[in-house]
Design brief:
The protein is of the alpha+beta class and 187 residues long. The protein is 33% helix and 26% strand. Strands 2-1-5-4-3 form a five-stranded antiparallel sheet, with helices on both faces. InterPro entries: Znf_ribbon.
Amino acid sequence: MSNDRLKAFVEKVGSFKDVSYVAVSSEGLPYMIKGTERENAEYVAAVASSLYDRINELTMALNLGKEERSKIYYPEDYHMLLFKKDNFVVAIKYDFAIDKLIEALTNNLLKGIEVRCPYCKNDLSFDVVKCPKCGERLPFTEPKCWNCGADLTLKECPHCGNLIYYNGQKPSFIKLLIYKLKRIFGG
């Protein structure tokens, strides 16, 4: 089950245009790689485990505590996020502009947050939607837009188009009626 969620995470996040690669390694061997910079990703996957361990050694030596995840900042506006999931080390290189999005999707993976559409049963935990007001990209699991504060508690499933809550629950008939009337009359 956990391995399937990790694969789903890698497939979704690795397909973003702002992500250079997602590299997953197990015991120093590349396990899964997705993205445009495959050669770099293979190298990072090979050293990710020792890099993660070394960063944790340094933070412990400085009495900063054990890190759940580590972020490396590149000078050309890229970040790399390193974290451990079970016995895998995951490295994601991405554009700084989607930092908050990557953090939220990573939280969904690490905390085991799973949201399924009650109609089509698809996993929406790593799906991304756009705010209808400002166009900001957000995880499906967010109830409000980070940028403009728009209420996004009720949204369409990206797979089947049915209206559901951000946490995967079905809305009541009255809620659906109010939502549709607001859309018709611009409220």
